[in-house]
Amino acid sequence: MKDLKELSVKIDSLLESKEIKKYAYSISEIETQEFNMEDGEFNLLRTLFDNSLAVTSFVGEKQGIATGNDFTDEGLAATVSASVEAANSAEPDACKDIAKFEGEEVFNIGCLKPDREKFFERLVELQKDLKEKYPKIKLMMAVAKYSSSHQLYKNTNGTVFETNSGRYMVLLEFAGNDGEKTTSFNGAEIIVTELDKPFIEYDSLRVKLDESVAALNETSFEGKIEGKVILTPDALVQFISFLIMNYLSDNVVLEGTSLWLDKLGEKVADERISVVNDPYSKEVICDGMYTADGFKGETTPIIEKGVLKSFFLSLYAANKTGRKPAKIPGGNFIVANGDTPYADMVKSIKKGLIVGGFSGGMPSANGEFSGVAKNSFLVEDGEIKGAVTETMINGNLGAMFNNLVSISKETINSGEMIVPYYCVDGIVISGK
Question: Number of C-alpha atoms within 13 angstroms, CB side, residue 357?
């Protein structure tokens, strides 16, 4: 792997030779050691390398951005030249900028030295556990990786951030299988920095395996009702993402279409709802420690006890609208849990669904959504009756987060997020 500090000296020299006084760039190298397994057998061991360079140059109030992956002298020169050319041909815009001085810091994240032998032992153990504990699961594919990355960010305001990180990842694709009966494919991902317990014990995997086995018992949702659904952590993450895109992101704030545009500091959701982005949490593995604009990440409440605390704005959108930029480097969301056991949530439903995922387009500007409930189960009289297909759900995004019935005590830690189950009311469910 290249010495990123040596590359940094070369990039500085190239930009200065073109008389660029204001700039920022990010260099990264990722090395991935990967095992592949198909039909229960390990069949591939390979090492993959990925380089990337992003250079932002300013010529007066004109900004140009170029990316590349060639770290040779010629490749660096080409990326820098492309960035400068893009700046020269851009329209002036004083709102395009880089963060002021944020310091010099080195971040070390996760497991920087892999235990390959232990990793392989855990994978063999997982293979055995699946066969013994989940005989009705057919494993289609498994990809196991250890990825290490080295990143360097620098700008002309003096900020220098260097990051070293490492993590283990296991990605599985499987289906429920019982003789002639097979479910649709399901998948799970485990992301860890330690190998201190068997992979089968991680809830992020176990819950998905249980879903696939339960899906062998099929049923149908008859008719159309407006009622309660339980959103699994996977489904809840989807709807929180929709909420961010529809109400809090650059585009909807710049265009003025966000229904929460003037709601900062006001109640927008049920008072039991709190969502925080925390790159410093020891319970999750952070995506990064600084933003693309050059801000050091901060622990940022998004919604706190139902009150809107932050928008997701880049420096450009913040400058354009007179708001504050978000110092949120990644998707490390922690959603507060509640005091209701998941089993009691299920018992409380007369007729409704457990929704494992949502397949549909983005909600409209007013928050209306409609789509197919995926990996979902019918609940009647407080009992799970079976997996449903061809079942639609529709509702309103803003109303959903105000029509909260309960939040589970239990949470699922995906490695990057911690999320409970939500039971919400007012969702239209349409079956055959």
Answer: 9
Count the Cβ atoms, other than its own, within 10 Å of residue 346.
18
Q: What share of the chain is helix, strand, coil (3-state, %, to 5)?
A: 25, 40, 35
Cβ neighbour number for residue 106 with a 10 Å cutoff:
11
Between the alpha carbon of residue 301 and those of residues 268, 275, 276, 306, 421, the distances in Å are 14, 6, 4, 11, 19
402 Cα distance to chain centroid: 23
Contact 333, 417 (CB under 8 A): yes
Give me the pLDDT at residue 219, please.
Answer: 94
- The share of the chain scoring above pLDDT 70, in percent, equals 98
- Confidence bin at 226 (pLDDT 50/70/90): very high
pLDDT at residue 37, rounded to an integer: 75
CA distances from 154 to 84, 243, 291, 298, 326 (A): 17, 32, 12, 19, 19
CA distances 312 to 30, 330, 384, Å, are: 27, 11, 38
**282-335 pLDDT per residue, tens:** 999 988 899 999 999 999 999 999 999 999 999 999 999 999 999 999 889 999
- In tens, the pLDDT along 117-166 reads 999 899 989 999 999 999 999 998 899 999 999 999 999 999 999 999 99
b/e burial code for range 248-268 (CB count within 10 A of at least 16 → b)? bbbebbeeeebebbeeeeeeb
> Could you give the domains of the chain?
4-214 (3.30.2290.10), 217-432 (no CATH)
Helix (H, G, I), strand (E, B) or coil at 44: strand
Task: Tell me how far apart the alpha carbons of residues 227 and 229 are, in angstroms, rounded to a whole number.
Answer: 7
Whether residue 21 contacts residue 155, with contact meaning beta carbons closer than 8 Å, is answered with: no
Residue by residue, DSSP assigns 160-217 as EEEEEEEEEEEEEEEEEEETTEEPPPEEEEEEES---S-GGG-HHHHHHHHHHHHTTS
Torsion sign over Cα 347, 353, 355, 361: negative
Residue type, 128: K
For residue 357, what are the β-bridge partners? 374
Of the candidates 208, 138, 143, 210, the one whose C-alpha atom is nearest the C-alpha of residue 174 is 138
For the segment 44-62, the average pLDDT, to the nearest whole number, is: 93
